[in-house]
Design goal:
By secondary structure, the chain is α/β, with parallel strands linked by helices. Helix content is about 50%, strand content about 20%.
Length: about 150
C-alpha cells in the first residue's frame, strides 16, 4: 500500500512539472511570434481584438483607407497553430470557419497562404498594406517590413 501511495505521489509530481514547463514554453513561444506589416501601414500598434478582426477578414482596410492583404501559413504549419492559439487566442478551426463563411457567402476571400518564413517576409515586403506573422530569426532580412507589437496581452 505504501508503494502505491509513493507511485501516485511521483506521478502527480511529474504531471505538475510537465504542466509548469508547458506554461513556460507557451510564454516563450508567444514572445517569439511577431506580427509584421509592410512599412506603408500607418498603424504601429494593434490589440488582440484588432488582430482578430484583421485575420478573420472583418476589417478589409487600414484606418487610412489602404486595403489589407493578409498572409498566413498553411493550416498544417506549427507556426500557424501557435499564432492562432497564443496571439489570437482562438483555435485554428475557428479562424478557418470564419474564412469559409466569407467565401461561401460570396462576401470575402481567404487569406493568401505561404509555405515558409522567408516567403512570408518577401510577400509582406512586396505588398503595400499587407500583414502577416512569423518567427523572426537573425538571418531574415527585413526590408520594407515593420514589426507591429500587440498591445495589452
Amino acid at each position: 500500500m505504501d508503494w502505491l501511495k509513493r507511485m501516485l505521489c511521483i506521478a502527480v509530481s511529474a504531471l505538475s512539472l510537465v504542466g509548469a514547463s508547458g506554461t513556460v514554453h507557451s510564454a516563450e513561444l508567444h514572445a517569439s511570434i511577431s506580427v509584421i506589416t509592410h512599412q506603408s501601414v500607418s498603424v504601429d500598434d494593434l490589440s488582440r481584438q484588432q488582430l482578430r478582426r484583421i485575420f478573420t477578414r472583418r476589417n478589409a482596410s487600414w484606418p487610412d483607407g489602404q486595403a489589407i492583404t493578409v498572409f498566413v501559413f498553411d493550416k498544417n504549419s506549427q507556426t500557424y497553430t501557435d499564432f492562432c492559439k497564443t496571439v489570437l487566442q482562438m483555435f485554428p478551426y475557428q479562424l478557418e470557419r470564419q474564412w469559409d463563411r466569407l467565401v461561401y457567402s460570396g462576401i470575402g476571400e481567404k487569406p493568401i497562404s505561404v509555405s515558409s518564413e522567408a516567403e512570408m517576409i518577401r510577400r509582406v515586403s512586396e505588398n503595400p498594406g499587407s500583414i502577416g506573422f512569423t518567427v523572426l530569426s537573425d538571418d531574415l532580412e527585413l526590408q520594407n517590413i515593420k514589426v507591429v507589437k500587440e498591445a495589452a496581452l
